[in-house]
Amino acid sequence: MNIRFVTRKIHALIDYPVAIALMAMPFVLGLGSSSPLAFWLSFTTGVAALLLTLLTDHETGVVRVLPYSVHLAVDFAVGITFAVAPIALGFTGIDAIYYWANALAVLTVVSLHSPQTAPTLASSGAAA
Q: 82 in a domain, yes or no?
């Protein structure tokens, strides 16, 4: 089995729950004890993730105007931002743990992404 098993469809299916979680978890966990930015960074990233998912050209996109490759690049940038945020913004305790855990999750999903292959004539059903 290829270790890079996260297909475009799997990624698309988890995007909406992740966006909602990014908006809800600051309330659930009481983020912001070390800095109000810890609360708002997650919430606004969740809103942006929801918009990104709605606009991405993949299985669950609604207005498919952004290439999936752009979506992956944004996800990677979010993962790096979440990894650096606790250090750069002085998050401690649950705020820091939350961002480092999310960074690990996002970067893992992006790194396990299965590259898309172009369909061949045989697999697309086209006659030779």
A: yes
